[in-house]
Fold this protein.
Amino acid sequence: QVEVIESGGGSVQPGGSLRLSCRASRRTSIMAWFRQTPGQEREFVGNRDWGVGRTNVAESMKGRFTISGDSTRTALTLQMNALEPEDTATYYCAVRMNRIVLSGQRSPENYDYWGQGTQVTVSS
């Protein structure tokens, strides 16, 4: 069992920034951020594949969102800038303990453990 804990959510005005942090209790292979709004499926935000040393960010969020992690493979940060009301969602951190090809990394069903989620609200 792996414990996954997110932190850093909150409320911000449009154009503002927030940083979300995720910590896993064990060394992982891939850590990712997803987000979800009521009635919608979980949407891939970005991830870090430690095995190949690659960071991925969803195309629609590139330029505003940045993913980073440390060498322990247990921590992942999501820096969100120029936030828009459409970014309002619950953000979840997910971890996968084994390798998977890039095409599979965007699907929430391919992750093993999840955090409880942290709410991000962008509103004036």
Remarks:
- The longest strand covers residues 89-96.
- The chain is about 0% helix and 45% strand.
- The radius of gyration is 13 Å.
- The CA atoms of residues 1 and 113 lie 8 Å apart.
